[in-house]
Amino acid sequence: MYLNHYKLKEYPFSLTCEEKYFYESSVHREALGNMLYAVQQRKGMVLITGEVGAGKSFMGTMLCSRLGPGCQTVILQNPPDSKKQLLRSFARHLGIPTAGAMDKGVLEENLQEYLVRMHSRGRLVGLILDEAQDLNQAALKEIRLIWNWEQNGQRLVQIVLVGQPELRERLLEPKWEPLRQRIVLSYHLPSLTAEDTTAYIYHRLRIASENQETVEFRPEALSLIHSATDGIPRLINIVCDNALLVGYVKGVHCIDPAMVTEVLRDMTCWGLQTSKEEIGAGRSPAGE
Fold first, then answer.
1. Are 149 and 102 contained in the same domain?
2. Same domain, yes or no: 132 and 266
3. Residue 15 falls inside a structural domain
4. Looking at the structure, do residues 177 and 201 belong to the same domain, yes or no?
5. CATH number of the domain bearing residue 251
6. Is residue 183 located within the same domain as residue 213?
């Protein structure tokens, strides 16, 4: 709706995970670099956690992309609810036939044969499990068993667990110690700092406008967006998208604190935290 008004080629704050929009803060750069090393060198299991909307799934997508064609990476975005479903989903994504009546033993055998072939060709196979906090006990146990598959002392599958903070808490339970001991790299994605929030917003605008400066956010508006969203990328996207819509309706190209406040008033259903003073005054504390 507002593309022509701001001379944008596409919507900059879409919630889809397009690689070109990935904002690489120093924390993200370090995490990605270490994850790549751990997977490529077959060092051990990797754990990524973060709050809802912090960009965990995007990190998994970027890891898959950075691993490149030398690693056949499978991302399971919907947690399997049984051992057999986990094996079947993994096999299907690898292109291994999975007949409906095939039992768990046959699935395991077919998977291991395939993985041994890939290993003999020098190819890595990665398994990224998104929303892993929702895995049931049976599926989580199966992950540990899959991790144990090896050939000539090397693991056949490199596993990355991606989930919300409760996954980390769950793995601290004594019964999951055997799985926890296999995790060699663990990252919790923090929310963006105020500085990174500003850089994140302008990064997305530059991509959508092909490096043309077609829209501006006032510093006070940026400060208000950060405090209201707590630096959570998904919430930043939602607020900014709606703020651009308000700017379009008003016929302006500069987003000020009053416009952001107008958006926040209509978005209480998202649980955004702003003080009554901020909403009432239409400015952030930094702008007072």
1. yes
2. no
3. no
4. no
5. 1.10.8.60
6. no
- The pLDDT tens digits of the residues spanning 192-229 come to 999 999 999 999 999 999 877 889 999 999 999 999 99
Region of residue 120 (phi > 0: left; psi between -120 and 50: alpha; otherwise: beta): alpha
User: Each residue of 135-193: pLDDT tens digit?
Assistant: 999 999 999 999 999 998 899 999 999 999 999 999 999 999 999 999 999 999 999 99
The 10s digit of each residue's pLDDT in 227-280 is 999 999 999 999 999 999 999 999 999 999 999 999 998 887 555 554 333 434
DSSP one-letter string for the chain: --HHHHT-SS-TT-SS--GGG----HHHHHHHHHHHHHHHTT--EEEEEE-TTSSHHHHHHHHHHHHGGGEEEEEE-S--SSHHHHHHHHHHHTT----TT--HHHHHHHHHHHHHHHHHTT-EEEEEETTGGG--HHHHHHHHHHHT-EETTEES-EEEEEE-HHHHHHHTSGGGHHHHTTEEEEEEEPPPPHHHHHHHHHHHHHHHHTT----EE-HHHHHHHHHHHTT-HHHHHHHHHHHHHHHHHHT-SEE-HHHHHHHHHTTGGGT----HHHHHHTS-GGG-
Last residue of a domain, one of 162, 189, 216: 189
- Asked whether residue 20 is domain-assigned, the answer is no
Instruction: Count structural domains, the chain.
Output: 2
